[in-house]
Please model this.
Amino acid sequence: MNIYLMGRRSNKTPFYYSTYKKLLKRFFIFCSKPEQADVLVFATSADFSSCAEIIFRCKSLNSRLHIVVVSEEPYWDTLWGGDFSKRHQQVEIEGETVRYTYLNHSSSNLFAFDKIPYFITTENHFFTRYALLFSRNTLLNASDIKKRWASYQYHYAAMAQYRKSENHNESWDEIGVYGLSDLRTRLTEAMLSNKSFVMGKGWPDSQVRQSLADWHLDKLTCLDQKSRFISALENTHQINYISEKIIDAYALLSVPVYFASELHRIHQIVPPSSFINMYAEDVDSTIMKMQSFELQQDFINDYLQAQRDLKHLFGDVQHLENERERMCNALIKEFECLS
Model:
C-alpha cells in the first residue's frame, strides 16, 4: 500500500518516527510524491485546508484514494476533531465534501497499549533513560527518600505551555475525555509563589522547550532530585493516553500530580496511591494536599513499589519491541480495512 504523509503537523503520527517507519516499511511504501499514493495520511484534519489543492489533484488522479487521519494527540482531537469518537468523517473544503477515516485514541484501539504507553515508544531515548534512572532509584530505601525530600530546592515544578481558557476545559463524559490544559495552568499559576520552578511557552522568562536540541534530557537535567512535586498533568485526559510526564516525575524522584479517573490505565502501571490525583479535586484542595503533605510510611511503601514496577517495565527491552510490534500490526489491520 502506497502512503504519503501530509500536513505541517505530520510529525505527530506513528508513520513519522524512524523507530516505527522502519518496521512499517514491511507493509507500506512511503511515496516521494502525493500523486503516487493510495492513502494520504494526516495527523489532524486541521491540515486539510492548507493541503486542499493537493488533495483535490490526487483525488482526480485516483478515484480510490483514501484520506486517513492517524492522530496521536487527543488535545488536537478536542480542538479540531468534531465528533472525534467516530471513525468515518466528512468535511467541506472549498465547497467539496471530503470523506476520511479518523483513527485516534477514542475511535480505534491503536493506542490501547499492552505494557508501555505509545508516546514513550516513539523514541529510543525514553526507554534507555528510564532504564537507568529506575535502576538507580530502586537502590534507595525509605530513609534515603526522606533525606532527599527534605533537601529539595523546589516545592513544585511544571514544564508545560501556558494555556488558560475555558476552551481548554471542555469535557466529553460519555467517552471519558476531559480537557486539562486550563486546569494545569491554573494550578501552576497558584503555585508560583511556593518555591516553584516553571518553564514553558507563555510563562514569563521562559523558553519554548521544543526548540531545544533535546528537550527531554534538558528536563531530566533541570529537575533530577530537585522538586518535591512535579506537575504531570496531561493536556487531555483519555484512559489510554499517557505521555512521558508522569513517568518523568517518578524518574526524577518527585511526587507526580496527575489527573486520572478510576478507568485510567496509569492505575495498571503504578499504585494509585503513589501520586496525587486531581480527579474529583479542584485547584484549592490540591494545593492544600501538597502544602500539608508528609512522607508517611504507607505512602513511601507505595512510592517505592512504583519505582520497582517501573524498573521492571523498563528493564526488559522486549516490552518495547512487543509494544512497537503491536502498534504496527494494529495499523496494518486498520489500513487493510479501508474501503
